[in-house]
Structure prediction request, 309 residues.
Amino acid sequence: AHQSKLDFFCKLGYGKQDICKVLENLGQEALEDDVLKELIRMGSKPQALENQAQPSPLKLVARGSCSTSPGSKWLGEDDSDSSDHLRPIVIDGSNVAMSHGNKEVFSCRGIQLAVDWFRERGHMYIKVFVPLWRKEPPRQDSPIADQHILEELEKQSILVYTPSRKVKGKRVVCYDDRYIVKVAYEKDGVIVSNDHYRDLQNENPEWKWFIEQRLLMYSFVSNRFMPPDDPLGRHGPTLSNFLSKKPVLPEPKWQPCPYGKKCTYGNKCKFYHPERPQQAQLSVADELRAKIGVPLNLGKEEEKRNRLP
Prediction:
């Protein structure tokens, strides 16, 4: 039991010393959920993130080479696998599967549709979290459809099972939501779920901000996965900007001036004037002077004289 826990948290990227310390404090029979909580409380970070914090010497790699430095891998993927401009995606597998199955059946096809949608957009880092007991043969009270999809996604290193075990015939399940939020937070990615994780928001103020800003809700229209075009509301970013590390700002659309040629604001007018080729570089007074051929400097001297008492 000790070794399996050690291996599991090593896979998540935590140092052996930290894991052993926590297991000593909590005892060997401690649940994985409690161990994870304690690691977070201690401020222990996965080694992949620590490595990023330390500037490493530049290394030349031959073009086309796939070699990565040892120790930089976490959850089977390296940061360099993630596309430069697209955010990592963390999918709440249970939420997506139950939504696709109309809350009656755990439909694995829904997970596949969501994964395919993000793949087609070009996202390289996609993780799906599903409780381990979904591997078991389905029972009448918890039907599951297309279970083979889970196996295929696991082989592709996309699906991650959150631990569970049986104690005296009762299933002990780790809280998979905590894994989902933690991984998305540390990867600075996006959570795909229709759950609001209110308990986790109350638990950690940093997570609260992250869940509010990075939760991507969705709908299934027949067999089509559809996130909203405005994930944070009408005045928030577009879907493309929400999923991008470097948002692209829309080009300003010039609105024509409602007063047209009768406008008296000159170069202070915010609106577009098609009749002014240099977009109101001159004030109205200067424009009039230019029309009658009076030098601009002369006009300004006159204005100064008129202002003097």
Notes: DSSP finds 13 helices and eleven strands in the chain. Confidence is low (pLDDT under 50) at residues 48-57, 61-82. The two ends are 94 Å apart (CA to CA). The longest strand covers residues 126-131.
